[in-house]
Amino acid sequence: MHQVGLLEKGNVLGMLEDLQAIVGPAYVLTESVDVADYLTDWTGQFSVADVPVVRPRDTKEVAQVVQYCNAHGIAVTPQGGRTGLCGGGVPMDHGPAIVLSLTRLNAIREIDVAARTVVVEAGAILETLHEKTLEHGLVFPLMFGAKGSCTVGGNLSTNAGGSNVVRYGNTRELCLGVEAVMPDGSIINALTGLRKDNTGYDLKNLLIGAEGTLGIITAAVFKLVPQPVTAVTAFLSVASLEAATDVLNLLQDFSGGAVEAFEYMPKDMVATILEQFPDMRAPLAEPAASGILVEIASSRAMDAEPLPDGSTRLVEGVMGVLGDLMERELVLDAMIAQSEQQRADLWSMRESILEAITKSGPAYHFDLSLPLSKVAGFVAEMNVVSADLGFRPVIVGHLGDGNLHYAMTAGQVREWADLPLPQAKEILFDLLAKLNGSFSAEHGIGQSKLDVMADMKEPAQLVVMRAIKAALDPNNIMNPGKFLPEART
Ligand SMILES: Cc1cc2nc3c(=O)[nH]c(=O)nc-3n(C[C@H](O)[C@H](O)[C@H](O)COP(=O)(O)OP(=O)(O)OC[C@H]3O[C@@H](n4cnc5c(N)ncnc54)[C@H](O)[C@@H]3O)c2cc1C
Predict the structure, then answer these.
(1) How confident is the model at residue 6, as a pLDDT?
(2) Which residues of the chain fall below pLDDT 70?
(3) Cα separation, 210 vs 345, whole angstroms
(4) Can you tell me whether residue 264 is helix, strand or coil?
(5) 81 lines ligand 1 (CB under 6 A)
(6) H or E segment at 99?
(7) Which pLDDT score, from 0 to 100, does residue 3 have?
(8) Stated pTM of the model
(9) Are 357 and 393 in contact (CB under 8 A)?
């Protein structure tokens, strides 16, 4: 039998046997073939060899494993669905380490229909949570392409965003409390679901977005919202990126803030998808320089009232607003999904962009946010810079939140290795800083954004973050090396 990692390095502490005693021999994986998938991230950019994977079944076992690792100086990288895009979920090569996979903690403990909350364990798959809450006429409104693989623990730990943030906020805003194992193995239980509780520091908000560096989230209580009774999904060609902000605001005004998604899908993005997935169909006959996928949904019965032409009041109202926007030449063309299939096709196109870019070749992915009023100017300027440097930019964005995924690709003309990526990054980050933008809107820091974090985050904030980390995790066992760059001397 070939055992990897600490066995080969001596297994001096008898660590594997001790961990087996806690979780059971079947749940400490050491064979190369068993651990391979756990040790490489989704992007394929980050991987590590020779690290065992431990799969506890409940919070108590997680606590025992962490306590053991803390006592023996063993690094712990928590892991959910491994869809994170910054390399946070696989260990760095920093001495004795384990991957602690949460996937066996996947129960939905309670759905409180009256309070509209759910208590769910960290390893539950996001899409499974969607399905289970829908059985009760309720929705967990966190939505994005990786929903079939990512876990709610990963969503919390990266404070994931996605396409519904414009209406419901990101994961942090959906969470009412967490249960977590702290670096010394103690368990904190804050699953009361209270909406008001001003009794001390808000520990859940320290753990959310901490990418596993302050503790392990084992369960959470989330808000749920009523299932919409009617919705409109449309693809718009708007006159310009500047005009898109007016279109968003007018649709928000009309619908009382019921815009669920407002996704920027410009011509190059749609073209990249069609190149890679020729079976998909362009939403409009004439490609939209500034395309927007918009969804408006309502849970009010009056909006779902059927009209003689088979549509609903909401559809009629949205058509009226779009007609007005077309007269004012803010919207040039529009396609409204006429069936659930057409809606699904539009979303499937939106959600396949990352895969399409990945299939097209090497790329550098920026995950940026900007004040809404600065987005158009930023894109115009960066597109010129990118083209001048030889890149083909492919952009997609959760535009309602000012969040752009700006990918610099090589296109088909240049070799990736010949392109001046460091220069492009420097120009982009300088411009971003000038416009008060963020260099990581929703994907986090992990390993891939450590250098940018060191260069761009305000030094005083880094000092506070390091103090928090040192206070909670004095032995630096929780996901070491990630998220917080070392202090520069
Ligand atoms: C196709 C695709 C589309 C995506 N779209 C979006 C998008 O629109 N918006 C968005 O925000 N993200 C998006 N992502 C990124 C990713 O899906 C999210 O970051 C997701 O929240 C990660 O969840 P996970 O379970 O896969 O976490 P993992 O990748 O396993 O881990 C991510 C980080 O969280 C830590 N972690 C995991 N579980 C725990 C836990 N229980 N306790 C403590 N720490 C933990 C890990 O150590 C790691 O640092 C996308 C990814 C893909 C592949």
Answers:
(1) 45
(2) 1-13
(3) 35
(4) strand
(5) yes
(6) strand 97-101
(7) 36
(8) 0.95
(9) no
